[in-house]
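For reproducibility, we list the full input for the tetrahydrodeoxyuridine complex.
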Amino acid sequence: MNRPAIDWDALVDAAKEVRGNAYAPYSSFGVGAAVLTGSGRIFTGCNVENASFGLCICAERVAIGSMIANGEREIRAIAVVTGAPTPTPPCGMCRQVLAEFAQDVPVYLASTTPGTMARATSLSKLLPDAFRGDMLPARDGGGS
Ligand code: THU
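The corresponding predicted structure, in tokenized form, follows.
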């Protein structure tokens, strides 16, 4: 059965809106992310920084965590919005976390800076030759 077309406007709007909640007092670099699941729901996240800088969490992983906490497992698309002069792609750690729950999904990068061109890319372009769980030796049970 064909799935409905991806509503990119809705996904970008959701990422823009959640970016307003970004907690980024150290970098002043607010990020919003919205994932579309296989069942058509949207989950959002913003970055959450910490005085202990290494503990900062990216918007993408917050959105994916919310998706998992709500019982979903499949990412169909993701939009990331910043205020940068050019749209910025997910960091390496977030690419790997995306690959846990997505095959080759479209990734849409946008900025709130006026006049900025959005950029469409994909997970396989951002993370070719991903390490995936099916490369691990088979193990029985557990993990539920
Ligand atoms: N950040 C994200 O939220 N997503 C990315 O993919 C790149 C970086 C956040 C982390 C930190 O709060 C700020 O942007 C500057 O690195």
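The helical segments are 8-19, 59-69, 92-101, 123-126. Residues 25 and 94 are 21 Å apart (CA to CA). Both points were considered when choosing residues for closer inspection.
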